[in-house]
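question for whoever is on the cluster today: can someone run the full assembly for these? two chains, 629 residues total. i dont have access anymore since they changed the login thing
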Amino acid sequence: MKEFIALFIARNKEYYRDRAAIGWAFLFPLLVIIACALAFSNPDTSVFKVGVHGDFAEATAVSEFLAQPYIKMLPYDDLSRGLERTRHHQLDMLISSEGDRYWVNSQSTASTAVEKLFLNDTHGFQREEISGRKVRYVDWVIPGVLGMNLMFGALFGVGYVIVRYRHNGVLKRFHATPISALQFLSAQLVSRLIIVVVVNSLIFIGCLVFLDLIVLGSYLSLLFITVLGALSMITLGLLIASRTANEELAGGMLNVATWPMLLMSDVWFTLDEAPLWMQQMANLMPLTHVVKALRAVMIEGASLTEVSYHLLWLAVMTAIFLSVASLLFRWHKR
Amino acid sequence: MTYLLEVKDLRKTYRKSVTAVDGISFGIRPGVCFGLLGPNGAGKTTTIEMMEGITDPTSGDVLYKNKPLGKQFSQQTGIQFQSTSLPDFLTVREVLRLFHSFYKKALPVELLVDQCSLGEFIDREANKLSGGQKQRLLLALALINDPEIVFLDEPTTGLDPQSRRRFWELIQNIKTRGKTIVLTTHYMDEAELLCDELVIMDHGRIVDQGSPRFLLDKHLPHKRVCLDINGHAAALAGMSGELIAGEDHLEIITTSIEKTLAELMQREVDLSTLRVRNPTLEDLFITLTGHQLRD
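^ ran it for u. tokens below:
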């Protein structure tokens, strides 16, 4: 165990003393957040848009609810017009004084959230549902951005380090000591796991703060998916780096692994309309399952049980990547 | 005879056509400094790496204390490779502590710092040391588990003369502590100074083996006595031994320096320019292989 701890500490020291690498690790996500903030932020600071049909007396529960800073109230004389706007997610909720009714869009995450706030403050209103789905692109894309950052941090972080170690003889020197491949690789894995989870958590917090992300699911579920996703990506990095001592070849192999995932794993756009074979191919990529699981938890409020299909894929991939990587692993170049 | 390490019919072939080591056998007694001497490409590094357990032989055996190399071998041996990098951004002290943690039995870091003279750069980044400093650190890492046997693969290649001599002193200190040393080198002065026994290799095979003195006496029993000419040529006529006349000097090739000197004094030859040249390992290597050590 002391060997593992010493290797783990040494690897962490290498990481945080490498100013260029650590700078990039934090600069890249910061740039992503800034880009998303600029592209998707709404100057209107209200979180929820609530349409109001009819008049509500002052100092009632409804008027106090509508006065909250996170509510933007929009009056509608025409009920049907308000309903149409709610159907297309341009309103998150519509309240009518006629019959004390309210409408929410059953497929709108914002409707679900604002309804909960509304019901906390008021009583006696009759619930009506409207269907019609739309989610903000930024809510949809951020799980992809998180998954993408996880992928780059894990694959390149662990892959390049091991290939460089093999190329310059560090691995060969370790091989001449009693430490085992398992001790060495597990120290690299745990060190990188902590780094990518911490960095991704910081991006997530940044997105919450700057983009007003709506997260309907549990934070712990997101953390669990992130850890499992990072494990699958790191073990894929170990597999890619298991033999070669050529840094250029390793770079090429890492790009071959990352670019198809970037394009086919629902990071920037959905493959729902893509040919079946492409969707099946995407299922073989860990990033697909990371992104879909994160997205389901964040914008659909899914539980871990509901995303267990993706978690199972990630667990199986992690086991396969780790097993093959340990079989192929070579301490030094030949 | 009991050997600490024994090599039996060791062979290494790459891609089925390139034979790096071609069926070599020898034994290493405890406490000696054993040298593998040969030019670049002779198969020294491949041989020593098979002895270290780093490279698998194509065929043949390496026995440590009469048993195949086992898992405990790395606990009892120290290795310094020909070229090694260390993890980036770690200081000398941190590198020593890292490697210290790998062994069940390890010497105190402070003792190694003292033995290998690392104190002046103990807090400097290990990958930013000079060549001589780095070799001393790598030697300290090879000694960190107080090994019975230490493998040093061309440890002074590329070092300046001062650093080489400082490194030789460290190796001699290790010898005085009773450690067994296996050293590869292509420097004959290094081999002559440090090695008790030698294997001379060329093209993956052993050309000959024995102590440096034994090998020199066996293959080059003659010494050369040199004198500047200065009119001696006539006085030396009829001397015993072979006489070779150079442009400005004469060489008498003899098996007995004493007899030759006595004869020269008897002939009242001026001995003020007398020089005696003993054959070196380089002479031996040229004799045995027909080419220079650094070819």
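summary bc i know u wont read the tokens: The interface with chain B takes residues 2-3, 5-7, 10-11, 13-14, 17-18, 165, 168-170, 172-173, 175-179, 332 of chain A (CB under 8 Å). Residues 48-130 of chain A form a domain with the D-Maltodextrin-Binding Protein; domain 2 fold (CATH 3.40.190).
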